[in-house]
Amino acid sequence: PTSQKVQEIPILMVPPWINKYYVMDMRPENSLYKYLVEAGFTLFTISWKNPDDSILDLDWDDYMDLGPLKAMEVVKAITGADRVNLAGYCLGGIITQVTLAYLAATGQEETVNSATYFTAHQDFHNAGDISVFINKPGVVFLDWIMNASGGYLDGRNMAATFNMLRANDLLWNYVVHNYLLGQEPPAFDLLYWNSDGTRVPGKVHSFLVHEFFLENKLMQPNGIQVKDTGIDLGLITRPTYVVAANGDHIVPWQGAFIVRELQGGPVRFILSGGGHIAGIINHPAANKRAYWVNDNEETDSERWLAAAEKNEGSWWVDWVPWLAERSGDEIAPPPMGNEEFPPIMDAPGTYVLEK
């Protein structure tokens, strides 16, 4: 904590497990985590382990059990809070939403006070540029690659795939300037993070590709089964804040927009300027980009945008007051740990250092 008082209900961040969590905490100048702490929130984040042979057999149920569900248990035990505010980014947003639906189906939704999704898919038939790889022959080939690699997806393969989707920007630009012209590339935090890839257990990635991308079952009530429970997004009643980005080639904003129809509770949808990363990591001090807001119950994305109000700058200044209203009273900061879950070391911990 950097403030005398903090909000009563803590935040639990659920980052994607492809690449590492520090995309939201790269430098003091653009850290979303630092911004939230300075705004008086108690913040916890998951740091996913880079899988090795010891955990390559984990599946989606394990990732939900040992990820958001276990982390919520720990956060509540340390802070004494009876509920948390969940926030998930990309794949982290998908598993956050599935976790919410699971909690709703099992009568435990009250343990979550609000949810936030950053650039998270809803309609997987609108999967952006990566759709060129999502077909049955391509998925069979991907399954074969994972089996041949020892049961996991290598993050380097995933990075190469995304680089090819934007070859002019992410490949040839560097060939020309670095190789042909001999220019030293400038230090760039986002490029470092992008190259710091992780492995993914084959069962986890196969479930994601088959059930979500290929079959688009998240949109079907009880189409997906986790922990022997059908996932129905319509059961989610928690207030939800959703951010999509108008230049996102991984999660097209029109596909994310449909969350307003899928979930049962109130949804505030924000469209940010920028791409999958730049549209989210945009500190207000930079005074860059813009965001669009429209609270009307419009179900057509283009009509929603045409009537939306454009605001210059970062959507962070809209989210923090929304979150504060759903974070209880101001209290003294909680301890950094307790007897059951003592502090191990300062951030960023050890998982983030694993190659």
Summarize the structure in words.
This protein has helices at residues 32-38, 60-79, 91-105, 136-148, 155-165, 167-180, 189-195, 202-214, 253-257, 259-262, 301-306, 316-324; strands at residues 6-7, 11-14, 43-45, 84-89, 112-118, 152-153, 200-201, 224-226, 229-231, 240-245, 267-272, 290-293, 309-312, 330-331. With 355 residues, it is α/β, with parallel strands linked by helices. The strands form four sheets. Strands 3-2-4-5-10-11-12-13 form an eight-stranded mixed β-sheet, with helices on both faces. Strands 1-14 form a two-stranded antiparallel sheet. Helix 4 (136-148) packs antiparallel against helix 8. It is globular and about 55 Å long. The model has no long low-confidence stretch (mean pLDDT 89).
Characteristic key phrases:
355 residues; alpha/beta; two-stranded antiparallel sheet; 12 helices; 14 strands; 35% helix
